[in-house]
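Deliverable D4.2, example record:
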Amino acid sequence: MTFDFATYRPKHFRWALDGKVATITLDRPERKNPLTFESYAELRDVFRALALADAVKTVVITGAGGNFCSGGDVHEIIGPLVRLQEAGDMGGLLDFTRMTGDLVKAMRASPQPIVSAIDGVCAGAGAIIAMASDIRLATPAARTAFLFTRVGLAGCDMGACAILPRIIGQGRAAELLYSGRAMTAEEGIAWGFFSRLVAPDALAQEAAALAAQCAGGPVFAHAMTKTMLNQEWNMGLDQALEAEAQAQALCMQTEDFKRAFEAFAKRAKPEFVGR
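Output generated by the structure prediction step:
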């Protein structure tokens, strides 16, 4: 599937491209922006396509109507999954759980920094999308719940047991994943899940400004940082130091590195082009 991101019109969420910054808005405010089978797949596909997109340098994800995302739609996802369970269709259930995991894989594999702007309800798969982002901004009203146990499922959904402990710590992650309770905005900022809290009427502007700052930076180097953040989870210190030495040497071959030095010498602001 090929994408022209300047004219892209998704069916299951809103898309806007402002310069090099794309904004995805989950847009079912009457239901607090739940996901469906189709929206999962469409989000997965767009993030896969972003891996090869030169037109987009940063992505913002947000929700409409004062909420981020309430997770999988009870009637459009949970109900059909129960019917698959009743039919003994393990293959169908596994197809779904693998597809949801593929969304997280695609988000982590895309080279663009992803900024989630979170207000109100951020639950289930919505909490996972926030978790899988690179940076999270929130309002004081944000309530983030990994509530899979509330529907009789394990907390180990869509990479939660792999990623969440690395953000907030093993003990805190375990409590949230076992209990399914909501993490308050105050807990989220204290535990490092959120980078900062902002007023609801400033959330979109703050997220856009942060995304624009990233998009105006050395985007090749940003992509390298994201790659190393992902890969170094599975490395010892010696491996990580060698991987970072090679990564930094590659960045030193870019024109952006030279431009930054020349701008510094002239006491000017560098203009990065991403190569």
